[in-house]
Amino acid sequence: MSQYPSNHAAAGLAPVGSGPLGLNLLPGGDRIVRDYGSLDPVLGRIGSLEVRLATTAKEIRRAQRLRFKVFYEEMSASPSGAALISRRDVDEYDRICDHILVLDHDVKAKPFRSAKPKVVGTYRLLRQDVAERHGGFYTKAEYDIAPLLKAHPDLRFLELGRSCVLKPYRNKRTVELLWHGIWAYVLHHRIDVMMGCASLEGTDPRALALPLSFLHHYAAAPAEWQASALPERFTPMDILPKESIDPKAALHALPPLIKGYLRVGATFGTGAVIDRQFGTTDVLVLLPVSAINPRYIDHFGPTANRHAA
User: Fold this and answer.
1) Cβ(284)–Cβ(142) under 8 Å?
2) Are 3 and 166 in contact (CB under 8 A)?
3) How far apart are the first and last CA of the chain?
4) Full-model pTM
5) C-alpha to C-alpha distance for 40 and 90, rounded to whole angstroms
């Protein structure tokens, strides 16, 4: 669910099919690597923008290049040598996750080349049944989610991550289209709970005391949905007492993505995790579908038909 990546090397997923420098985690070219069955990969459209699921290795690589541009060139993440060479943000989970893309079709053709839609936004999705076949969710590298999953054995969990949008497209229309795509995916796969890590920029909890304390005191997940940061990575969020928090100022200090999750109905786990490699402080977002604000379901349509292609 993050706008920033997190270091999930400890998540226990063995790399399969990796080539030199770990870059070739996907087959090349336009080969189809995702088949969504009865779900049409094109999920919706607003004007020149289209939201779709990546179907080819080339499309996934374009998502990885967008992530590199945002995470490493714009933000403060420190790329590995492999990422520097490939100019892509790559990890082992890319080969098992589904990737949502927002493309802009309003692009000018370059000399001697036909116009190609531009990838301007992306989200990465990992369903529980897929995660369980490949070592589990990557969130487990930061949060103890095993008790949460065990407490809800009959529910389907979906992990959201690696979200980013190209700077000129960070507006309501692009974000709405991304969420429209996620909602269509959630309905198709009958998902019950969405979760994932979201990030605040910076690694000094004192500098983030207001937003972290606000999330702890005002937006903590109910007991049945709680999960805590791993003991060895746990950073307290209750830095300020509740009575000293100005909620309006705290909301202003939160990243737009986290504010968006709050509006939809999300709550947050206990404890933050500092990720020094990526220069972020991560929090755990929990969003049962049953808790989503009804006006958002009405907005997108009960069958995700508002922006249907």
Assistant:
1) yes
2) no
3) 25
4) 0.89
5) 26
